[in-house]
Amino acid sequence: MAVNVRYTRYLALALVGMTFFYLVSRTNLQLPNSASFARPVQSYNEFKANKNEYPGVNSTERVNATFVTLARNSDLWDMVKSIRTVEDRFNREYNYDWVFLNDKEFDDEFKKLTTALVSGKTHYGLIPKEHWSYPEWIDEDKAAEARAEMERKKIIYGGSESYRHMCRYESGFFFRHPLMMNYEYYWRVEPSIELFCDIRADPFRFMKENDKKYSFVISLYEYEATIPSLWSSVKKFMTNHPEHIAEDNAMEFISDNGGETYNKCHFWSNFEIGSLEWLRSKQYIDYFESLDQDGGFFYERWGDAPVHSIAAATMLRKDQIQFFHDIAYYHVPFTHCPNDEQTRLDLACSCKPKDNFDWRDYSCTNKWFKVNHLSKPDGWDKKD
């Protein structure tokens, strides 16, 4: 008897279900599908106009500063990684602006996604052609021969024309772009970098309040084959412009014999926080223009890192250059990680101290500490 009752119940439910689907099929009722949830694709301008802004808890304490990135559209996904780490570790509390520069127009995909990720305002600038091309005094055939010879010798980026334009632009022009003229300080960020520790104190404010003009986290030796005549060009500038050379500068960091030769030490410029007013000063512009006239950006492969570093080491006081020990940073293939355990715990760091590059043979950070009579941090000599 119980079996018959259960069978009757199942039969009734089946009839109800069949009736429902019959009625649906006979009406215009539309069941939802994936297409029903699709939204129209917005242009960048539409997206930006509708973006919600959420002030960071420290946003009212900001100084006049911006992040700046030189990138291509093809760098988008590597740039996403960099923005995410900068926002998570620091900028979500401050909402600083971000300027993106490119020698081609940025496409809507790049602008929409980076605008969505950055907590501050984003700005996108096109590099003027005259800043990304050969100046009139450069022999382009000679430059092409130099690239071919460096490529034959397998010198890194030796055969790249665009790399040379990039180094020249970062050395002498990015800080003069109209979008950058609105700011006093900059923080350079490249694609595929990582920050390993929370940044609790605002580096921009620290720079401003302590009269710092330039900063770094990693230093190392430059490839000598890329800059054979750079120091000769620098010495010519120093002879012609002794008024630009600072007293109590950091010449000892870049020369082991009082300026006679260059020891190849430089600050790694893919991370740098600095003063835009200093870079726009007559002092620095005279320096860049003197080097630029000598043609080493194209006839050799002068990088912006040694160009910036030599300028800072000769034209600033030592105490105007800051080593940010607490900013844990990675750019392939090197890592800066705070040595002392308590700092790593306090700042929720995720880096391995054994990966720290600071005290290795190819690093110049040890020399920086000696020149400035600084004590090495606790744990610097630990290997694990």
UniProtKB/TrEMBL annotation:
Q: Does the keyword Membrane apply?
A: yes
Segments crossing the lipid bilayer: 7-24
Q: What positions constitute the catalytic site?
A: E272
**From which residue to which does any coiled coil extend?**
none
Q: GO BP, one example?
A: protein O-linked glycosylation
* InterPro entries on file: Glyco_trans_15 (IPR002685), Nucleotide-diphossugar_trans (IPR029044)
Alphabetized UniProt keyword annotations? Glycosyltransferase, Membrane, Transferase, Transmembrane, Transmembrane helix
> Looking at the record's lineage, which domain of life comes first?
Eukaryota
Q: Which GO terms describe its cellular component?
A: Golgi apparatus; membrane
Gene Ontology MF terms: alpha-1,2-mannosyltransferase activity
Family listed:
Belongs to the glycosyltransferase 15 family.
Q: What is this protein called?
A: Glycosyl transferase family 15
> Which organism does this sequence originate in?
Penicillium cosmopolitanum
